[in-house]
């Protein structure tokens, strides 16, 4: 029997547009929804329209002073600070409304699970994981991931696992819960020596009572499907099985792809599909099937993100698409109104995402990272870092 899955969506999500030429362009969401519809993934799915997050809901994560700055920034005659008005985070009209709607979307998805209407819930506009308590960062104004997790904690959840597969470190979420043992944050990302924000070292483990509940897997540039999946399976299942979360929250940025212009990992859409299958399985085996799915980064707007996230939507809905599924002609016609770049003809890059499981030997390029992370965090959970069975 398929899990019950809720999908949160409104065209108003497309209003989160930082500027006309900003790399975080909402066209990626529009084309993802159109591709999902064109391939029948959303057939008979009643979309849930969210309300904006309230001030009280945002205050679980963001200071009132910062919220005031976000609201007033479009009309402020001076530098308002808080990371606003930068190249990464330009000020735009309706910024608070657009950002709070996305945060409200992630709360709505969390509420579907918490109130028993769904086992899984999706907010593909979410995943703005860099925003900090009192400042914008990395294209993110409000941290909807943290807001949704904080809302779940207020509902009585005691063990929430957050797994971030974006190419950039999930720094804002880690920071929000760095001393909280109720939230396990796991981030798979390009090595901080080589990519912004420069955090996410294996030795970042949490603080105080939260020590051991921050897990970081910094991957070397050039890591491909096989290496990424080898590292993931060598670390993530073991810590999730030991933590036993009541719900799995995932940030599923698609910017690990080889064509993404913002970073230097070398994954394929086929590798992304394998990641989403692994996350679904972990939700089933470690979190009682409870899975909150959020989007994230992704800047190959036409060739990659729509396909990757359509696979994600299909996996969340148990409507898996074969890799060789053809792209509908109507979608291609729509996409060509936005770009002259060659467009894909199928839901695959023709890549083989198979990998060899880590076996304790340091024989592959990512194995130094695997051992560094396991040796840093596994003993804090009673696991043997050098035992490939863990």
From TrEMBL:
<protein>
    <recommendedName>
        <fullName>Acetoin utilization protein AcuC</fullName>
    </recommendedName>
</protein>
<comment type="pathway">
    <text>Ketone degradation; acetoin degradation.</text>
</comment>
<comment type="similarity">
    <text>Belongs to the histone deacetylase family.</text>
</comment>
<dbReference type="InterPro" id="IPR023801">
    <property type="entry name" value="His_deacetylse_dom"/>
</dbReference>
<dbReference type="Pfam" id="PF00850">
    <property type="entry name" value="Hist_deacetyl"/>
</dbReference>
<dbReference type="InterPro" id="IPR023696">
    <property type="entry name" value="Ureohydrolase_dom_sf"/>
</dbReference>
<keyword id="KW-0006">Acetoin catabolism</keyword>
<dbReference type="InterPro" id="IPR037138">
    <property type="entry name" value="His_deacetylse_dom_sf"/>
</dbReference>
<dbReference type="InterPro" id="IPR000286">
    <property type="entry name" value="HDACs"/>
</dbReference>
<feature type="domain" description="Histone deacetylase">
    <location>
        <begin position="22"/>
        <end position="314"/>
    </location>
</feature>
<dbReference type="InterPro" id="IPR003085">
    <property type="entry name" value="AcuC"/>
</dbReference>
């Amino acid at each position: 029997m398929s899990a019950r899955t809720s999908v949160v969506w409104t065209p108003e999500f497309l209003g989160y547009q930082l500027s006309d030429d900003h790399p975080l362009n909402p066209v990626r969401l529009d084309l993802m929804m159109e591709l999902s519809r064109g391939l029948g993934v959303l057939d008979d799915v009643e979309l849930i329209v969210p309300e904006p997050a309230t001030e009280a809901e945002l205050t679980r994560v963001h200071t009132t002073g910062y919220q005031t700055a976000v609201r007033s920034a479009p009309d402020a005659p001076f530098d308002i600070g808080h990371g606003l008005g930068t190249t990464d985070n330009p000020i735009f009209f309706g910024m608070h409304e657009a950002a709070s709607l996305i945060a409200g979307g992630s709360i709505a998805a969390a509420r579907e699970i918490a109130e028993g209407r769904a086992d899984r819930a999706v907010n593909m506009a979410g995943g703005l994981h860099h925003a900090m308590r009192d400042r914008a960062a990395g294209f993110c104004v409000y941290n909807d991931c943290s807001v949704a997790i904080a809302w779940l904690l207020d509902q009585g959840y005691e063990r929430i696992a957050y797994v971030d597969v974006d190419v950039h470190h999930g720094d804002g979420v880690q920071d929000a819960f760095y001393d909280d043992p109720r939230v396990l944050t796991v981030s798979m990302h390009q090595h901080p020596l080589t990519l912004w924000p420069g955090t996410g070292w294996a030795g970042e483990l949490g603080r105080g009572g939260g020590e051991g509940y921050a897990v970081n897997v910094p991957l070397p540039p050039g890591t491909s499907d096989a290496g990424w999946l080898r590292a993931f399976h060598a670390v993530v299942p073991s810590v999730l099985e030991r933590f036993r979360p009541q719900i799995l929250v995932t940030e599923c940025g698609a910017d690990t792809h080889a064509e993404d212009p913002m970073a230097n990992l070398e994954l394929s859409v086929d590798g992304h599909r394998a990641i989403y299958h692994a996350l679904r399985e972990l939700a089933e085996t470690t979190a009682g099937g409870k899975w909150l799915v959020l989007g994230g980064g992704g800047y190959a707007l036409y060739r990659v993100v729509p396909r990757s996230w359509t696979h994600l939507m299909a996996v969340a809905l148990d409507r898996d698409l074969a890799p060789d599924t053809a792209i509908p002609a109507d979608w291609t016609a729509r996409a060509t109104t936005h770009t002259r770049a060659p467009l894909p003809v199928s839901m695959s890059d023709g890549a083989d995402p198979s990998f060899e499981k880590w076996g304790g030997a340091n024989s592959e390029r990512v194995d130094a990272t695997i051992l560094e992370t396991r040796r840093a965090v596994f003993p804090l959970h009673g696991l043997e870092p050098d035992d490939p069975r863990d």
